[in-house]
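Sequence of ActR/PrrA/RegA family redox response regulator transcription factor (Aminobacter anthyllidis).
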Amino acid sequence: MTTQDIAGGLPGEDHSLLLVDDDKPFLTRLARAMESRGFAVDTAESVEEAVSKVRANPPAYAVVDMRLGDGNGLDVVSAIRERREDTRTVILTGYGNIATAVTAVKLGAIDYLSKPADADDVYAALTNSSGERAAPPENPMSADRVRWEHIQRVYEMCERNVSETARRLNMHRRTLQRILAKRAPR
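Predicted 3D structure, token representation.
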């Protein structure tokens, strides 16, 4: 079996992939999925851990969450670019906006995906030729779903403290409790 057979058609010889995300279950699932697609996967759950891994062995590919517990994923992208300019980096975020997308691209990211992104989306972004345009999503999240995802993320960041979450979101505590009690919108 050749390297090309193992890598499933990935370009180049180096198939090292660094996944950086502070969501452990998501990180584990994505790592398994990328390994099955031929990548040699290494993971990190913080900016500090990712930067030290980049300094020791800069990867050929990287998938970096924008917001991490100890800082900004753009710091990881910048560290990757300093060590290895040809790394194909994709940014993942639950907080997509134009300013951060532009900054990510200026720092060298090749794509910017909104969470929840599945392994097929990540693989396509990593292996996409620079001349190809990404197709629009078939089922984009509704505005209600984006709002719900944001509220859940802040709730988790506040260690599931309703009062603190309500304060950070600038909403009434009872309103937040009603939203948290409902199922996620489609």
